[in-house]
Amino acid sequence: MSYRSGHHSTSDDSSRYRTAGEMATWRARDPAARFRRLLDAAGWWDDAREAVLRQATRREARPRPSGLRVSERVPVALRRSQAARAAAPACHHASCRAACDIICVVRRK
């Protein structure tokens, strides 16, 4: 079994309803830490390998500039939806335009 050793969210302070002793007990039983100790003891892992892996992972996860702004990358499905709305006749429900844009396009299909 595992244990959530952190807070639920940034607005949560789990130290208000958990003791430090309880958290320490569960951290000692953390499956990831226990597995790491097993790998270390067997000689299959060490701090140098850990550093190389973390560096490679950070490099891979770092966002790459694409030359486009987020707003310029319009998903294909959204472009199709916008085209369908533009091609549809004007909605007769002027007072509820936002909802009717979707409903009236669906009804015309």
Q: How would you describe what is shown here?
A:
This protein has 109 residues and is an all-alpha fold. It has two domains: 14-61, no CATH class; 75-108, no CATH class. It contains five helices and no strands. The longest helix is centred in the middle third of the chain and has 15 residues, at 47-61. The mean pLDDT is 77.
Spans of at least 5 consecutive residues whose pLDDT stays below 50 are none
Report the sheet with the most strands, covering strand number, pairing sense and barrel closure.
none
Number of separate domains: 2
Outline type: elongated
| Percentage of residues in strands | under 5%
- First-residue to last-residue Cα separation: 52 Å
How confident overall, as mean pLDDT? 77
Query: Helix count?
Result: 5
- Please give the number of β-strands: 0
Structural class: mainly alpha
Helix-strand string: HHHHH
Round the Cα radius of gyration to an integer and report it: 27 Å
Q: Helix fraction?
A: 55-70%
Summarize the structure.
This protein has 109 residues and is mainly alpha-helical. It is 55% helix and 0% strand. The chain has five helices and no strands.
What characteristics describe this protein?
0% strand, 109 residues, 2 domains, 5 helices, mainly alpha
List the helices and strands and how they pair.
Blueprint: H1 20-28, H2 31-42, H3 47-61, H4 76-87, H5 97-108
